[in-house]
Amino acid sequence: MNNDLFKALSDPTRREILMLLQKQTLNAGEIAKHFTISKPSISHHLGILLNANLVISEKKGQYVYFTINSTVIQNLLIWLFKFKK
């Protein structure tokens, strides 16, 4: 596990973004509607999530859509369950 992953997960706003993306793929504007912070702040949070590979982005027309990267989440859970003993 890399430090970028844990840094990304340490912030409650980023965790909430992941919860939103768990339900559906959204663009930055759609994500921003769920928060009272500025759109540039949402973009900053999305950049951190992208850097940690927790989300995947795909450009469709003039919008960039974000989806959760379930592979990274699954790998994190596997890693965490190793501590269960």
UniProtKB/TrEMBL annotation:
Residues 1-85 form the HTH arsR-type domain. Keywords: DNA-binding, Transcription, Transcription regulation. SMART domains: HTH_ARSR. One of its GO terms (molecular function) is DNA binding. PANTHER family: TRANSCRIPTIONAL REGULATOR, ARSR FAMILY, TRANSCRIPTIONAL REPRESSOR SDPR. This is Transcriptional regulator.
